[in-house]
């Protein structure tokens, strides 16, 4: 799987050799503070290796690396929901701080959302954003996601409570 994004960027499948660069770019408090606790800080090469192994064995069709000129600098992926929610997916992502503000995530999110809907038949994709991560909310809005609700004090991270903003996108051909 590979989606070219332009300017040396692409979204592609994980490789075992991605662990050193993923741990280097992911080991950043400014990245980790916006993610779930399952993304540890510090983010070591051992964490990256274990995650890559998990993805390759269990989620290779729904989790991808964001690559810049051959180096893994972030991730994007989605989790297809179960039962009556089986045509819905939750999407999540992170990007190296050194690549923020360049439009990379907007392109990656747009392309992966298109893949999820067109290739895998998803009807709805949603994302949740911690209140202080305004950049992520802007990326979602640029890709057509709408703010659907705010869950007050729904996130507990770093010994503090935060609001959770939920954004959703519904495929246009479904009523």
Automatic annotation (TrEMBL):
Supply the CDD domains for this chain: NAT_SF
- Pfam family, any one: Acetyltransf_3
Q: Which domain of life is it from?
A: Bacteria
Q: Any transmembrane segments, and where? A: none
Q: InterPro entries under this entry?
A: Acyl_CoA_acyltransferase, GNAT_dom
| Family matches, as SUPFAM superfamilies | Acyl-CoA N-acyltransferases (Nat) (SSF55729)
Question: GO MF terms on file?
Answer: acyltransferase activity, transferring groups other than amino-acyl groups
All copies of the N-acetyltransferase domain together span 17-167
Q: Which residue positions does the secretion signal occupy? A: none
Checking PANTHER family in the record gives: ACETYLTRANSFERASE-RELATED, N-ACETYLTRANSFERASE DOMAIN-CONTAINING PROTEIN
- The protein here is known as N-acetyltransferase domain-containing protein
Species source reads Endozoicomonas numazuensis
């Amino acid at each position: 799987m590979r989606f070219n994004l332009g300017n040396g960027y692409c979204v592609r499948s994980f490789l075992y050799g991605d662990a050193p660069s993923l741990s280097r770019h992911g080991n950043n408090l400014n990245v980790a503070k916006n993610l779930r606790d399952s993304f540890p800080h510090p983010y070591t090469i051992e964490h990256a290796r274990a995650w890559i192994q998990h993805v390759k064995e269990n989620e290779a069709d729904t989790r991808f690396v964001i690559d810049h000129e051959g180096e893994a600098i972030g991730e994007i992926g989605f989790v297809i929901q179960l039962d009556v929610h089986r045509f819905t997916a939750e999407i999540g992502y992170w990007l190296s701080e050194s690549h923020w503000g360049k439009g990379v995530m907007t392109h990656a999110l747009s392309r992966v959302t298109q893949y999820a809907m067109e290739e895998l038949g998803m009807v709805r994709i949603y994302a949740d954003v911690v209140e202080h991560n305004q950049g992520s909310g802007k990326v979602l809005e640029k890709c057509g996601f709408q703010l659907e609700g705010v869950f007050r004090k729904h996130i507990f991270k770093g010994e503090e409570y935060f609001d959770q903003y939920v954004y959703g996108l519904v495929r246009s051909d479904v009523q």
